[in-house]
Design a protein that fits this description.
single chain; about 300 residues; alpha/beta; Cobalt-precorrin-4 Transmethylase, domain 1; Methyltransferase, Cobalt-precorrin-4 Transmethylase, Domain 2; 5-stranded mixed sheet; 11 helices; 10 strands; about 40% helix
Amino acid sequence: MASGVPPERGQRGSAPPGLTLVATPIGNLGDLSPRALEVLGGVDAVLCEDTRVTGQMLARHGMSVALLPLHDHNEAEMIPRTLDRLRSGQRLALASDAGTPLVSDPGYRLVRAVIEAGLPLTAIPGPNAAVMALTLSGLPPHPFLFLGFLPPRAGPRQAAVARLRAQERAGLSATVILYEAPHRLAETLAALAEGLGADRPAAVARELTKRFEEVRRGSLGELAAHYATAEALGEICILVGPAPEETTGEADLDARLREALKGASLRDAAAIVAAATGLPRKQVYARALALSAEE
């Protein structure tokens, strides 16, 4: 560097003005970039979800920086204090425990407040588990849909999977990326296999960048069966390949409409079937009218 200051020992004020979002390693501490080190060593304080985790990371690089907790339970009260600090000229960083800030981590409301206040905002790019898992999965890389964590309880999780399937029937075609806790992996894979189809191509990536990194590829049914008995440890990503293209034949359409018409008006039945099949509503409504006239 031109200043001659090692990046891990940046001088106060060497960070950009305002708030800087800093991506941190998802496992291997060697993935913290020189630029991230310079910024973290040059800010007045670092906002972080767990001060112990960030403190240990900084200590390994010989840095001692003021740490301010920012998590889901205190973000609302921390926002005005943080804006006051920024308005006074302080340079701050927001760091995740692991990965890129805001991606299934706190900070979104703070970032919105900084933007609305017209204060400087920038970011240091770096590790992200979802994107790394996608590149290793062997599944189509784009488009992809990142959904974060599914609901932990069985009922809401099943409903979330059903909504995803309805979106796919309406035309969504993308590789889906999820995060999951180790103790819920087996039941989540079982719910995905039941709701999306056991033959869907998928992958489970865990312990990325760490010593026991593993990416297991197979169908949802195969992965669900494997993890029903196999223990899974570490941070986990689930990836599900795009839904196969569906064609709704005339007989299938008629069967769906007759079933829907048993409990709904003609207009509502057409809307339900159109949403489920992805067919144009006018086309489905016209067929519903024809069936109604025939019967």
